[in-house]
Design goal:
Distance between the termini: 74 Å
Radius of gyration: 26 Å
CATH class of the largest domain: Alpha Beta
Number of strands: 17
Oligomer: single chain
Bound molecules: zinc ion
Number of domains: 2
Number of helices: 15
């Protein structure tokens, strides 16, 4: 009898816990948003399509060696801007900075307000050797086929660049006059990470020298991606990059006597280095669910199905489980830790020569909050062989983390939602570098977001073969820019 009562109590307790959790899951939904849909914008998709297609035909390929850059191509792109966007050029001032970067300034009526800036880079990456034949359409043909506009720069990022110009031209046609100054800042060598003459940095320094402090910066980064997993989620994820990881390369080397390979020691410099590599790879950086990842999980979690929300509503409790899962998948591990990749190795120059020096290059992508100096210290800590030499080759520190409660972030969130209530805006960490980080000394609110909806599989064509953008995304992309400028520059 007593047994039965105990079992009954246990059953009742489990039942009430399940019920409590179900109630929690039912309440675990996005904050109510009653905002009405936005009024329609006038958009000239035809003009934009033609101009983007023609811009793609111009080979503005950047190169670390500036002598190898075809600067006439950049001049041609500037001419295209001038011819196709006459009102922009009549209303805004244009200034060339460095080799081919541009500052457009749309003077606001109230000079007391901090200006906003929309960024874009004019350069594209080249076509990798031996891959031209794999393109279904000429990478510099600007062709339209199968619902897409094809070519280098279609996604990264002439779509965004021309989209900004198109939206400003249309706003001027509409008679819009900004209260707050609007800058359009177009660098010319974003793709050259190691460039000592970064166009974006030159622009940022010039603005800083003029005492400009920006209210907000919008650059490339996230996009709108449909996230459809049956029974889990059916939404569009608009990722807003609020920070970008840092980057550094270290050379780790061991020197030895060398000599003829017929008389070798048990462990040559290369052999010793093998142990060093293991030390590095076996001691990964600590993973951490940062507030940024927390926020991302929370916003996505609240938009999942009721069944999944039964789990997601306990994110705080389940943090260690999420961390374990994210750590184990390379694609998500990069969100929670500084990553380590041993990429290049060098030994002796010939098969029968003992190495006098053996080295590996290790590439790190650094989490915001950590520094290059921390990475160097980590290498010293984990490598047991104290005869190694550790040398920093180069790198960039991680960016600051921009707030998610600023005027600009709220504007992006509000516009995205009102354009489509199925859009879920979530902050995220940008893995690659963008021009945006150069502006953090003159702006706290730096966001990386490109408002074009795309099929997730197209992302992988960026910097690769068959880069293309869906033409169906053009209308809303331009509409977003118009609304963003109106929202932020009206007061
Ligand atoms: Zn880019």
């Amino acid at each position: 009898m007593e047994k039965k009562i105990k079992a009954g109590i246990a059953l009742a307790a489990t039942g009430s816990a399940v019920l409590m959790n179900a109630i929690r899951a039912a309440k675990y939904v996005p904050a109510k948003n009653d905002a009405a849909p936005l009024p329609e914008e006038r958009i000239n998709v035809e003009r934009y399509t033609k101009n983007l297609s023609d811009a793609i035909k111009i080979k503005t390929i950047s190169n670390l060696d500036e002598d190898k850059v075809d600067w006439a191509a950049f001049d041609e792109l500037h001419r295209l801007f001038e011819e196709r966007y006459p009102l922009v050029h009549k209303t805004l001032s244009v200034e060339k900075v460095g080799k081919a970067s541009l500052i457009y300034k749309w003077e606001g009526k109230n000079p007391a307000l901090d200006p906003i800036a929309l960024l874009g880079h004019q350069d594209v990456v080249p076509i990798s050797k031996g891959t031209l034949g794999d393109w279904k359409h000429d990478p510099f043909g600007g062709e339209i086929a199968d619902g897409c506009l094809w070519g280098r720069g279609a996604l990264d990022m002439k779509n965004h660049l021309i989209g900004v110009l198109e939206s400003v031209e249309t706003l001027i046609e509409d008679g819009f006059e900004p209260e707050r100054t609007v800058y359009l800042l177009f660098g010319h060598n974003e793709e050259i990470v190691a460039s000592p003459n970064s166009g974006a940095l030159s622009i940022a320094r010039l603005l800083q020298s003029r005492g400009v402090h920006l209210d907000s910066v919008l650059d490339e980064g996230g996009a709108i991606l449909p996230v459809k997993v049956p029974g889990v989620i059916d939404k569009n994820l608009a990722g807003i990059g609020i920070a970008e990881k840092g980057y550094c390369d270290f050379e780790v080397s061991i020197t030895a006597k060398g000599g003829h390979s017929s008389n070798p020691p048990t462990h040559t410099a290369v052999g010793q280095l093998a142990e060093v590599i293991q030390d590095i790879e076996n001691h990964q950086f600590k993973a951490e669910i940062t507030p940024l990842v927390d926020d991302l999980l929370e916003r996505v979690g609240r938009n999942t199905s009721f069944l999944v929300r039964n789990v997601m509503c306990n994110t705080k409790l389940l943090k260690p489980v999420f961390k374990q899962i994210m750590k184990s998948i390379p694609a998500s591990a990069s969100f929670v830790r500084t990553t380590t990749a041993v990429t290049m190795a060098q030994g002796s120059p010939q098969a029968n020569v003992l190495p006098q020096k053996a080295s590996v290059t290790v590439n790190f992508r650094i989490m915001p909050g950590m520094t290059i100096a921390d990475v160097e210290q980590h290498l010293h800590d984990v490598i047991r062989n104290k005869n190694v030499e550790i040398r920093l080759i180069g790198g960039n520190e991680p960016s600051h983390i921009s707030p998610t409660d600023s005027r600009a972030f709220h504007a992006i969130e509000d516009i995205c939602y009102r354009m489509n209530p199925d859009n879920v805006v979530a902050p995220y960490l940008v893995m690659g570098g963008t021009d945006a980080r150069n502006y953090q000394d003159i702006c706290e609110n730096v966001y990386r977001y490109s408002p074009f909806q795309m099929d997730p599989k197209l992302i992988f064509t960026t910097h690769s073969t068959n880069e293309r953008i869906e033409t169906a995304s053009f209308h809303d992309g331009i509409a977003f820019f118009k609304r963003y400028i109106k929202e932020l520059a009206s007061c």
